[in-house]
């Protein structure tokens, strides 16, 4: 390998020849150094020297075998054509510009390291941190005082429970018997009710003297005159029943709901009251309820 020093323009060098350094001419039009063999070593004006590599020369189809030496202006690569580690490209300037590479400005606390993406300048951010330099918390996160975890998830408030948002009436004990402990489901209870469905409580809204629950009906095990269908619909419960926890319903939970047909106060939906059975769902009930369905079809479920 031989070194060439570019003369006249200071842009680089390349080529081959004797065992000592030689001067290459500078092409003002192409802004590259030309060796006596006219093999270019384009250093993008960031290096004054280059060496000739015969293997690269052959691999290129005898077009170029030059490798730039000592790239300046925070550049790197065979042709000083990209930014060195710790710097990234300023795309507003050509690669031949002295300030084509900008230093990474990674935040000392928010970033997981000091080296950014050499193309985009994006720093590696810690969990919950965002921004090119990792200088702010991502959506859903808030700043903490910890340098290790500078951004933590914002706590999500639990869904509003209707029974906890209203004062319990003084006559609840005489009005109804709130469910306590685990309730059991049997054929007798199944037969007493007009409908039996598995529901997922999505949300609750106060509507005058009623609570309107938006529910997703997952499975229908028994239908009354209301002809309940699977999918989203409303479940209506009187405000006093909810306040007395007869039944006790919490948004986000799944329940087995057994009740009787009543006219709903709104447009569509089903009604539950203090006489309805609302039991937190257990997957083991599905098989039992299917058996109840089969018995009902055979006429073994006579409503008293």
UniProtKB/TrEMBL annotation:
Keywords: Cytoplasm, Disulfide bond, Glycoprotein, Laminin EGF-like domain, Repeat, Secreted, Signal. Pfam families: EGF_laminin, NTR. It is found in: Cytoplasm; Secreted. InterPro entries: Laminin/Netrin_ECM (IPR050440), LE_dom (IPR002049), Netrin_domain (IPR001134), Netrin_module_non-TIMP (IPR018933), TIMP-like_OB-fold (IPR008993). Residues 104-153 form the Laminin EGF-like domain. Residues 172-301 form the NTR domain. Disulfide bonds join 104-116, 106-123, 125-134, 137-151. GO terms for cellular component: basement membrane; cytoplasm; extracellular region. Coiled coil: none annotated. Residues 1-21 are annotated as: Disordered. GO terms for biological process: animal organ morphogenesis; dendrite development; motor neuron axon guidance; tissue development. Residues 1-19 have a biased composition (Gly residues). PANTHER family: NETRIN-1 (PTHR10574:SF378), NETRIN/LAMININ-RELATED (PTHR10574). This is Netrin-1. It comes from Pleuronectes platessa. The lineage of its organism: Eukaryota, Metazoa, Chordata, Craniata, Vertebrata.
């Amino acid at each position: 390998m031989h070194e060439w020093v570019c003369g006249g323009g200071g842009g680089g060098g390349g080529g081959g020849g004797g065992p000592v350094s030689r001067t290459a001419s500078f092409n003002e039009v192409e802004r590259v150094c030309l060796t006596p063999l006219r093999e270019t070593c384009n250093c993008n004006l960031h290096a004054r020297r280059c060496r000739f590599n015969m293997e690269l020369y052959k691999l290129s189809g005898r077009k170029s075998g030059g490798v730039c030496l000592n790239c300046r202006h925070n550049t790197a690569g065979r042709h000083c054509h990209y930014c060195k580690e710790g710097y990234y490209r300023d795309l507003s300037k050509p690669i031949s510009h002295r300030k084509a590479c900008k230093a990474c400005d990674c935040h000392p606390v928010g970033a997981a390291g000091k080296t950014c993406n050499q193309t985009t300048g994006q720093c590696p951010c810690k969990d919950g941190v965002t921004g090119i330099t990792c200088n702010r918390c991502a959506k859903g996160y808030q700043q903490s005082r910890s340098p290790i975890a500078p951004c933590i998830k914002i706590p999500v408030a639990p869904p509003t429970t209707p029974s906890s948002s209203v004062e319990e009436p003084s006559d609840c004990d005489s009005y109804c018997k709130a469910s306590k402990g685990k309730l059991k489901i049997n054929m007798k209870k199944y037969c007493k009710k007009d409908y039996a469905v598995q529901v997922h409580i999505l949300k609750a809204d106060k509507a005058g003297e009623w609570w309107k629950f938006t529910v997703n009906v997952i499975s229908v095990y028994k239908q009354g005159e209301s002809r309940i269908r699977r999918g989203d619909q409303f479940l209506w419960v009187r405000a006093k029943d909810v306040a007395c926890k007869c039944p006790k319903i919490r948004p986000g939970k799944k329940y087995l709901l057994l009740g009787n047909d009543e006219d709903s106060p709104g447009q569509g939906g089903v009604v539950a009251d203090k006489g309805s059975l609302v039991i937190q769902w257990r997957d083991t009930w599905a098989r039992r309820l299917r058996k109840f369905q089969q018995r009902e079809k055979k006429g073994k479920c006579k409503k008293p």
